[in-house]
Design goal:
PPR_rpt; 350 residues; single chain; mainly alpha; 2 strands; PPR_At4g14850-like_plant; two-stranded antiparallel ribbon; 18 helices; Putative pentatricopeptide repeat-containing protein
C-alpha cells in the first residue's frame, strides 16, 4: 500500500472495511503515519467502527482525541443513535443525549440526528421536545428534521402539530421528496383524516410502494376496506406489488366490514389466518401510542407499557370504568384484535 497520497485514499479505504480486523489495520496505519490528526480522519474512523457495530472502539477513538471538532462530536452521536448496527450496544439514545448535552457547539447535523434518532427508537415525545428546543434556540430546519417530526406526530396522534409542520413546509418552500410526502400520508391516514392523506398522495409526482401502502393501510384500518381493495388493484396496475403489511391490513379491514353485516364463524378463522401470516412473514403490528395532554404536557401510553409514574392509579381507574361499563351491559369484542389481549383476559371472560 502506497502511503502517498495516503490521506486522500483514507475515505475509500474506510468505506471498504467490512469487519473489525480490517478497520483495526487502517486505524493502526493512521496512527503510524500521523493521519489520525489529519482533517476529519478521526470522525470517519468513528463512523466506520459504528457502521460495523463496534461502538466500543468508536467511543475509544472519541475519548482519546485531544481536541474534538464538531465532526467528531456528530460522528459519536450518530453512532449511538442509528439503528443500523448489528451489535446490541447500538441505538442507545440515552448515551447520545449525554454526548449531545456536553457539546460545546451544535450544528444542524447533531440536532437532526437527535430528532430522527428518537423517532427511530420509538420515543416520539423526546423527538417533539427536541424540535421545540431547536425552535427556542433559533435553529433552522431542513426536510430531514421535519420528516422525523411528522413521523413523531403520527406515533403520538398529535394532528395539530402535524398540520403546523406541514404548513411550515408549504410556507417556507422546503422541498418535499417522496419520503417526506409519504410520512405526511401516513400521519394523516393514521389519524383518520383520509381526505388530507389522499390529497397529499394524489399530488405526489412520484410514488413508491411505501407511499401506496401508507394510504391503503389507512383506508383499511379506518373501515374503508372496499376502497383499500380498489387501491390494491390500482397499485398493481401502476407496477407496484403490495407488501405483506398492506395485504394484512386490507384483509383485516374486510373481515371487520363483513362482521358489521352478519355473524359468521369464518370471521375468527380469517383473522386467525392473518395472525398466522403475520407470524410466518415476520410482519408485526407496530405498537401504538395513546396521548393525553394535561396542563400543556403530553403523556404517552404505549400498549402493555407499565413505566408511567402513575401506572397503578391509572389501572385502578380503568378497571373501575370497565366494571361500571360491564354493569350496564357492555360486552367487549376481542376476536378481531391482533395482539394477545384474548389470551391475557380470557380468564375474565369465563
Amino acid at each position: 500500500m502506497q502511503l502517498l497520497p495516503w490521506p486522500s485514499r483514507l475515505r475509500s479505504l474506510l468505506l471498504s472495511c467490512k469487519d473489525k480486523a480490517s478497520t483495526d489495520k487502517i486505524h493502526a496505519l493512521m496512527i503510524l503515519t500521523g493521519t489520525i490528526t489529519h482533517g476529519n480522519s478521526y470522525a470517519r474512523l468513528i463512523a466506520t467502527y459504528a457502521r460495523i457495530g463496534d461502538i466500543v472502539s468508536a467511543r475509544k477513538v472519541f475519548d482519546n482525541l485531544s481536541q474534538r471538532g464538531i465532526h467528531a462530536w456528530n460522528a459519536i452521536i450518530i453512532a449511538y443513535s442509528r439503528q443500523y448496527c448489528p451489535s446490541e450496544v447500538c441505538g442507545k439514545m440515552d448515551e447520545a443525549v449525554v454526548v449531545f448535552n456536553k457539546m460545546p457547539r451544535r450544528d444542524l447535523v447533531c440536532w437532526t440526528t437527535m430528532v430522527t434518532g428518537f423517532v427511530q427508537s420509538g420515543r416520539p415525545i423526546e423527538a417533539v421536545d427536541m424540535y421545540k428546543t431547536m425552535q427556542n434556540e433559533g435553529m433552522e430546519f431542513d426536510g430531514v428534521v421535519l420528516m422525523g417530526l411528522v413521523q413523531a406526530c403520527a406515533s403520538l396522534g398529535d394532528l395539530r402539530l402535524g398540520l403546523s409542520v406541514h404548513g411550515f413546509m408549504i410556507r417556507t418552500g422546503l422541498p418535499m421528496d417522496v419520503m417526506v410526502q409519504t410520512s405526511l400520508v401516513h400521519m394523516y391516514a393514521k389519524n383518520g383524516h383520509l381526505e388530507l392523506a389522499s390529497s397529499v398522495f394524489n399530488k405526489m409526482p412520484y410514488k413508491n410502494a411505501i407511499s401506496w401502502g401508507a394510504l391503503i393501510s389507512g383506508f383499511a384500518q379506518n373501515g374503508f376496506a372496499g376502497h383499500a381493495l380498489e387501491m390494491l388493484v390500482e397499485m398493481q396496475g401502476s407496477g407496484f406489488e403490495p407488501d405483506s403489511v398492506s395485504l394484512v391490513a386490507t384483509s383485516i379491514g374486510s373481515c371487520r366490514s363483513e362482521s358489521h353485516s352478519k355473524e359468521d364463524p369464518r370471521e375468527v378463522d380469517d383473522v386467525a389466518g392473518m395472525k398466522k401470516m403475520m407470524k410466518q412473514t415476520g410482519t408485526k403490528k407496530v405498537p401504538g401510542y395513546s396521548v393525553v395532554e394535561v396542563n400543556g404536557e403530553l403523556h404517552a401510553f404505549l400498549m402493555e407499557d407499565k413505566t408511567h409514574q402513575h401506572h397503578e392509579d391509572i389501572m385502578l381507574l380503568l378497571n373501575k370504568l370497565d366494571q361500571d361499563m360491564r354493569a350496564v351491559g357492555y360486552i367487549p369484542r376481542t376476536e378481531f384484535m391482533l395482539h394477545n389481549f384474548e389470551e391475557e383476559h380470557s380468564s375474565e371472560q369465563r
